[in-house]
Specification:
By secondary structure, the chain is an alpha+beta fold. It folds into two domains: about 90 residues, Arc Repressor Mutant, subunit A; about 100 residues, no CATH class. The strands form two sheets. It has a four-stranded mixed beta sheet with strand order 1-2-4-3. The protein has a two-stranded antiparallel sheet with strand order 5-6. The longest helix is centred in the N-terminal third of the chain and has 18 residues. The N and C termini lie far apart (about 50 Å).
């Protein structure tokens, strides 16, 4: 009797977004042109095809999470408008969309660097009535979340210094950055914090991080 195929366990949206952002990052790193087969910007058909081959992602998984990455500013759409004249003389417009990682998306993976624009560049913080502080890792948060922000920095530093796999470090640090970005707001998005924390709390299994995770647990509970 033939065995049935094992049902596919779909990855979480967060996992898909990490895979996709890394895909766009790698494509930009290895690009030899701005668009096309070897370009930093790529058509959606190629994105879907390559992610299916490399990671088994379905077209709906790619499309829905690409929409999310664009709305969050990690990826941008570049539309090229063209037109051609039909035999009867009618001008028919056409457009082709390309997608590429943004500077914010690159910083999401690499971490902020020398050329990273300050998060609140161009905003008069004093006009918002908020008290914004800068943490040791350069992230800026609302002062009322100082203890949580500093605890996340300590956890981040311990993760980076640990012997955990580099891919795991990148995932955890990226989600810590996500929470810190929310802490800059007067009213952080609880859903985003909750989702990121689901990944970060696994750092308790990394040598030297368990007590730091517990400290964060005691401070982040109000958002979960």
């Amino acid at each position: 009797m033939a065995k049935g195929k094992t049902a596919r366990v779909p990855p979480s949206n967060n996992d898909i977004r990490r895979i996709m952002l890394q895909y766009f990052y790698d494509r930009n790193t290895n690009a030899t042109s701005s668009r096309g087969k070897k370009g930093s910007a790529v058509e959606i058909s190629d994105v879907k095809k390559e992610l299916k081959v490399a990671h088994g992602l379905t077209q709906p998984e790619v499309q829905s999470n690409l929409t999310y990455l664009i709305s969050q500013g990690w990826v941008e759409e570049d539309t090229i408008e063209k037109s051609f004249t039909a035999p009867g003389g009618t001008v028919i417009p056409s457009s082709t969309s390309f997608f590429r990682i943004t500077a914010a998306g690159i910083d999401k993976i690499e971490g902020p660097g020398e050329f990273t624009m300050p998060k609140f560049h161009g905003i008069k913080i004093e006009a918002t009535g908020q008290n914004i502080i800068t943490l040791g890792d350069g992230n800026q948060i609302n002062a009322k979340f100082t203890d949580l922000g500093q605890s996340l920095v300590a956890l981040r530093d311990a993760i980076i210094a640990s012997e955990a796999p580099e891919s795991e470090k990148m995932t955890l640090v990226a989600d810590i950055e996500t929470i810190q970005s929310q802490l800059a707001k007067p009213e952080p998005n609880r859903g985003i914090i909750r989702s990121a924390w689901e990944t970060i709390k696994a750092a308790a299994s990394i040598n030297g991080c368990a007590s730091l995770v517990q400290k964060v647990v005691g401070l982040i509970g109000g958002f979960l």
